[in-house]
Structure formats: structure tokens, C-alpha cells
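Take a minute with the sequence and C-alpha cells given here and flag any C-alpha cell that looks odd. Thanks in advance.
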Amino acid sequence: MKKTLKPILEGLAVGCVFVSITMLFEIPMYMSLIIGALAALGGYRNSVKMDKAKAEKAAAAEKKND
């Protein structure tokens, strides 16, 4: 999977989960979509941040082994 595609897919997955959860509570559709969009944005940003932290950790381990 491409590095640019992974955060987008993770963000969409988080957004879909939040939309489905909010629909269970009979919240109006427009509010569910807003909550889902915000959750998708948060999921995207978290995925990017976690990938960056993972890369930094791998670089630190590589430096330590040298």
C-alpha cells in the first residue's frame, strides 16, 4: 500500500465507524455526517503522526546499531 493512501483509508474507516455509531443514537443525518467528517480528519492526522513517530523510532534504532 502506498504511504499516501494508508492515512486516507484509515481516516475514512474511522469516519465510517463514527457515522454508523451516531446513526444508532438516532442523531439527524447532517449531524452524523459532520461528526464522521471530523472523526475522519482526526483519524487521518493521527495516522500521519503515528507513521512519523514510527519512522523516527526506526531511525533512532538504526543509529543506535551503528
